[in-house]
Write a structure and sequence with these properties.
82% helix; 3 helices; 78 residues; mainly alpha
Length: 78
């Protein structure tokens, strides 16, 4: 059961890390597209900054390392 949770955590954290790295790299284009597509006349929408995405990418990279290490340890303990 703990191995299943480790795999779920690894996949989730890896996908989140990829998402935040993509959003960091293409920040201006993505949010310009969102504004253009979903603009309803009001410009009161707030979006995360590039620094927010960089911080979250780093956080999820650490989570990925943690879950990968956990799975490696569990494999060796079998």
């Amino acid at each position: 059961m703990i191995e299943l949770l480790g795999w779920i955590g690894l996949v989730f954290s890896f996908m989140s890390m990829i998402y935040h790295r993509y959003m960091y790299a293409h920040h201006d284009q993505v949010y310009a597209y969102i504004r253009k597509k979903y603009d309803e006349g009001g410009d009161d929408a707030t979006f995360p900054s590039k620094d927010d995405h960089a911080r979250d990418a780093k956080k999820y990279a650490y989570y990925t390392i943690f879950f990968a290490s956990l799975l490696i340890i569990l494999i060796f303990l079998r």
